Amino acid sequence: MTVTATESGAPESGAPARTAPSEAGSPFAPALLAERARALADHPEEWVHRVRLDPQGRWYERVHQDADHEIWLISWLPGQSTGFHDHGGSAGAFAVALGTLEEHRVHDRREVGAGQVRSFGPDHVHDVRNTSDAPAVSVHVYSPPLSTMRRYDLDAGGELVRLAAESADDW
Ligand SMILES: [Fe+2]
């Protein structure tokens, strides 16, 4: 299993360690978040009993939270997606544990398969989708813990238009 890409910074080698805040307000650098996400995705026996599949929308559950970071499990049935969103200034990473997801950015789209991880800095906007014909499960790590998320739409010119903001109280 390999780290497929990072949005900011090079993957760090060696043992995961707390890093100096290189991103505004993010106690953990994206590469470390990727490491955390991948480590948990590699051990489904620790969490698979929690996972549910919800035809009404993505199922998610926070499985860890402290002052520095939080970890969520998300399940995706075929066709379920997040829509374009940011992470309110948090850095993050997600690792696909089962199935395949697609990460869409304004001018870019990439498949993230089981065993792969994506990480990103605090300015990242994306739309994550299950465009496959099978369920998917992913592990998401954010640092600092998410406090707000803003939603976006694409206008006719393909540019992002900011929509509503959601706060942690909404989820
Ligand atoms: Fe996201």
UniProtKB/TrEMBL annotation:
Single GO molecular function: dioxygenase activity
Pfam families the record matches: CDO_I
Entry keyword set: Dioxygenase, Iron, Metal-binding, Oxidoreductase
Stretch list, region Disordered: 1-27
SUPFAM superfamilies assigned: RmlC-like cupins (SSF51182)
InterPro entries in alphabetical order: CDO_1 (IPR010300), RmlC-like_jellyroll (IPR014710), RmlC_Cupin_sf (IPR011051)
Family according to the record: Belongs to the cysteine dioxygenase family.
Name listed for the protein in its UniProt record: Cysteine dioxygenase family protein
